[in-house]
Amino acid sequence: MSFIETAVLTSSDRCSKGQAEDVSGKLVSEMIKTIGGRTAAYDIVPDEIPAITEKLLHYCEKLKVNLVITTGGTGFSGRDVTPEATEAVIERNIPGLPELMRAEGLKITRKAVLSRGIAGIRGNTIIINLPGSPKAVKESLGAVLDLIPHSLEMLKGGAH
Fold first, then answer.
1. What is the pLDDT of residue 160?
2. Mean predicted confidence (pLDDT) in 16-20
3. Strand blocks (E) in the chain
4. Within 10 A of 37 (CB to CB), how many other CB atoms are there?
5. What is the DSSP letter of 11?
6. 25, 44 in Cβ contact below 8 A?
7. The pLDDT value given to residue 16
8. What is the pLDDT of residue 1?
9. Dihedral sign (CA 73, 23, 14, 109)
10. What is the distance between the alpha carbons of residues 125 and 61, in angstroms, rounded to a whole number?
11. Spatial CB neighbours of 60, under 8 Å, sequence gap ≥ 6
12. Where are the chain's structural domains?
């Protein structure tokens, strides 16, 4: 069985300083196991575009993971810059995944539409932004988790 090599990146000023525990990043690692995912890399960075883009590029170019899941930094504050950092790294956009996450989240709370998270492709890697709260991670990733293996197969040129 081949694993889905995954990198998990948490963008959080508080977690990066050790002022809070990263529950969301650990939850992502647990959830991806259900689709054959294995956490090949896990990092916590402050909410800063250079720190986020550096890690995303490292995961895609050096580690060549299949999947990168980010958590945090998708809100409205001036420090929430994960979508902008992701936009700077991706080569192609995947609008449907965040649309589905927001649509499914809308069934639970109207606040789901306020996530600015995006998804895209760089090389042979899919990058997906999730919100920072564990509840939102569970709901958002849960909405698209079953689509990830097929998405990766399509990226490799497999059957559509």
1. 61
2. 96
3. 4-11, 37-45, 67-71, 92-93, 119-122, 125-130
4. 24
5. E
6. yes
7. 96
8. 53
9. positive
10. 9
11. 68, 89, 122, 123, 125, 127
12. 4-155
The overall longest dimension of the chain from CA atoms, in Å, is 46
Q: Name the pTM for this structure.
A: 0.97
| Three-class secondary structure of residue 110 per DSSP | helix
Nearest-angstrom CA–CA distance, 53 and 86: 7
- Where do we find the tokens 């965040």? 98
Enter the tokens of residue 73: 């930094």
Candidates 76, 82, 108; CA nearest to 24 is 82
Name the token pair of 33: 């196991």
Picking from 71, 63, 86, 57, the residue whose alpha carbon sits closest to that of residue 28 is: 71
The CATH fold of domain 4-155: Molybdenum Cofactor Biosythetic Enzyme; Chain A (3.40.980)
